[in-house]
Amino acid sequence: MSDFLDVASDLLRSNAVQEKRTEFERVFAAIGALQSVHSKAQLDLNNIESIFTVLELGRIIQRVPGLSSEEIPEAIAALKELIVKTLEVTMTFPTEGRNIGVPPPYEDFGNLLTHLYKEAFPNQAAAVISFNYDIAADIAMYRAGLGPDYIIERPGGHHIPVPLLKLHGSLNWATETVSRKIRPLHLASYLQHPPFRGIGEKRSTTRVPIGSHLVRYFQDHASTVVDAEPVIVPPSWNKADYHTALSDVWAAAAKHLSEAEHIFIIGYSLPETDSFFRHLYALGSVGTAPLRRIAIFNPDDSGAIDSRFRALLGPGASARYEYHAKTFGEAIGHIKALFPKRT
């Protein structure tokens, strides 16, 4: 997400996010106010994870340079709106007639999961743990008939319920305003009801603004009032404020880590600021199942990410450790080859 703010700034300047202009401007005004921090401390004002972390901490200590205590939660809400809108505007999905398809390389990802469950010998069970807010993996799993099962509320239908554990929340997760319960908007429901019912005109790609439709959907189809912002959890530092709502998701992730014989980590760089994942791995990876492989896939070939993961692992896991300088798409083919098809 290192260039996320640059993308958001370009969208603002090109008038591509007019309905959220106030929120975008509020975020960039807050970032401008934080420039004063540089006189006494180092702060990466170009990284959205760093900005998110600073604002969340500022809310707790009631202090962010250039903002009043009342303006801090407004800036956080605006930042979440910026994240949602930027993802919705920049991510496109192919269309198949009047249906939404799966963007590459996520179609291959869905095929990989299908291969593991139905074609590999012996058949494999899998769980997907994601740090992403977008719904690309969700669409891939849905189109493959593999759920997704978010744990907090399982989908209906006859799909194989493959867990998709989104540790930082998701564009299609809403919070009930009164109960504070998290309610996922399942793709099977969303794609079959207004305001999104197929494709209204012939085109090769479309956007899926599911995060912007949460309030209307739950009001019209579930008679439930939900917050305007989807469940978007800070990607680093303290997640304590969210533990009640997301504890089942995090517990399921720890359980699957403890039971896994193969752990594949794709595209995650293990930033120094993310103590959450380090502790989750430490607590969740202890189990009775023998670990056969922990493989990291990341296009970085500088050695920096490889070194961070090696420092994370204990002696037993280190003996099973692999690092591959591969992209997400390349990783899918590599993993599939490890589990031959039934003959």
Shape: globular
Task: Give the strand tally.
Answer: 14
Structural class: alpha/beta
Order of helices and strands: HHHHEEHEHEEEEHEEEHEHEHEHHEH
Describe the sheet with the most strands. Answer: 3 strands, antiparallel
Could you estimate the helical fraction of the residues in percent?
40-55%
**How much beta, percentage-wise?**
5-15%
Separation, N- and C-terminal Cα atoms: 42 Å
How would you characterize the overall build of this protein?
By secondary structure, the protein is α/β, with parallel strands linked by helices. The chain has two domains: 4-90, no CATH class; 93-337, no CATH class. It has helices at 4-13, 21-33, 48-61, 71-90, 106-119, 136-143, 187-190, 214-221, 243-259, 275-284, 304-312, 315-318, 328-337, and strands spanning 93-96, 99-100, 128-130, 164-166, 169-170, 173-175, 182-184, 192-193, 196-197, 205-206, 231-232, 262-266, 293-297, 321-324. It has a three-stranded antiparallel β-sheet with strand order 2-1-10, with no helix packed on it. Helix 2 (21-33) packs across helix 4 (71-90).
Keywords summarizing the entry:
343 residues, alpha/beta, 2 domains, three-stranded antiparallel β-sheet, three-stranded parallel β-sheet, 13 helices, 14 strands, 41% helix
What does the secondary structure layout of this molecule look like, with pairings?
Layout: H1 4-13, H2 21-33, H3 48-61, H4 71-90, E1 93-96, E2 99-100, H5 106-119, E3 128-130, H6 136-143, E4 164-166, E5 169-170, E6 173-175, E7 182-184, H7 187-190, E8 192-193, E9 196-197, E10 205-206, H8 214-221, E11 231-232, H9 243-259, E12 262-266, H10 275-284, E13 293-297, H11 304-312, H12 315-318, E14 321-324, H13 328-337
Parallel strand pairs: 3-4, 12-13, 13-14
Antiparallel strand pairs: 1-2, 1-10, 5-11, 6-7, 8-9
Helix pairs in contact: 2-4, 3-4, 5-6, 5-13, 9-10
